Amino acid sequence: MDSPRAYKDPNYKHQICRAEANKNNSNYPFIDRSMDHHDVFHLSYPRRLHPHRHFADQNGFKQAPVMVVTVPFPAQGHLNQLLHLSRLISAYGIPVHYVASATHNRQAKHRVHGWDPLSTPNLHFHDFPLPPFLNPPPNPHAPIKFPAHLQPTFDASLHLREPLAQLLDSLSAIAYRVVVIHDTLMAYAVQDVVALPNAEAYAFHPVSAFAIVFHLWESLGRPTDEGILIPNDVPHHSLEGCFTGEFAKFIARQYDLMNFDVGDLYNTCRAMEGRFVDLLDQEKLSGNKRIWAVGPLNPVVLGAARESPWRRHKCLEWLDKQPLRSVLYVSFGTMTSLSDDQIFELAVGLERSKQRFIWVLREADRGDIYAEEEEARVTQLPKGYEERVEGVGLIVRDWAPQLEILAHRATGGFLSHCGWNSCVESISMGVPIAAWPMHSDQPRNTMLVTQVLRVGLVVREWARRHELVSSDAVEDAARKLMASEEGDDMRKKAEMLGGAVRDSMSEGGISRAELDSFVAHISRV
Q1: Is the pLDDT of residue 379 over 90?
Q2: What is an example of a GO molecular function annotated in this UniProt entry (predicted)?
Q3: Which domain holds residue 230?
């Protein structure tokens, strides 16, 4: 655990990470920083320090030094974050094995932005079987907006335990060390890691440090002493309405098993959440485990987007024709479906605002997005709507390249559900957020974005989550974010914060140093 100096000197943590990255150089690659930091890092290894130098056991059998296995939770925002982390780790010359069902591996590879997983060295996908599971459509009228229709998929993921244990056993026979990085909601599936003498597990938290701090603080009974210092100015609310009862039990089952993890990884950075990462570093909250804030995991510069092997999406061509920072991007992620009444109010509000917009209007994902649908819901807009907004607004009904949209020079705001994946992508691209939380960690992310970082505004307060958001409220939020002095101030703050976040992943940046530190740690001899 860091000394108290770490909380007073912002450079101290950075120095510690760099020191560790250089400490065990018998098995640690030198990194050629000549490339732009958004590219997969080019590595140069002196022969005597090559990371694939094999160790020999007592019988003379050659072993690879370290192999990493990443185990994501089967929901888009979770699949995406661990796939990005897998890319970053594989760039150090370490073999990474990404484990999921065939349909979820296909989904992760198909939807990833900014790089091609099929041409990434050292990244291996394992398609494990799942038993048949129900694949119902979402319910846009459910009083709790959490995607209860995905629960059969989540339950099916528990059956990955046996094939995963077999993979770990086989890798442990050929590797000096097997490192398992698992989503916190996949603890049940990876629990057999404890049976292997040369394996260790790390929990990956796909949510904000802000949300985790309060979860841990509340689980301890909200103590006000014993070294846990929750800042008085930090907002707070309950988790009522964030999850279904069934999913809350699922979460509890996973967290009850997580005593085998030896460290924690977060998709965040100190430029965004330094004060909360420091709080997590307190022994009372961390349990004396090492933590690394290695985000943002998504590529932070997309200069090579036009050279993508996939055809450029039509919405990007439309954005090319729009003025700088003039377009409001509207999307509620992959796990939320709006009612017909709410779609109507949102449509009217966007039209009346007179602001340019791209609206991704699609249903929430089913558990298997490739399964044939018997009766797909067709969302209806007001009569003649798309003709009236032509040239000002664009409706996208298929999968949209969110990261590329947020990185585009024409995008000036994001009307979002405030899922953590979307928050990180938006902040890293310097785009302010109009927050409309729906479920899960989104209400707390909304507080972080609007009241702590002050790079956004609230469209609907969580306490009024059961109410229809009127077209007037949508119109006011769109105009405030896109066409007011207050919105301009948020945009300037977001751009400054985005620059700091991007710098954290560049040469000399603290997130890069923490990632170096983690790789050095798992590569230790």
Answers
A1: no
A2: zeatin O-beta-D-xylosyltransferase activity
A3: 5-300+505-522
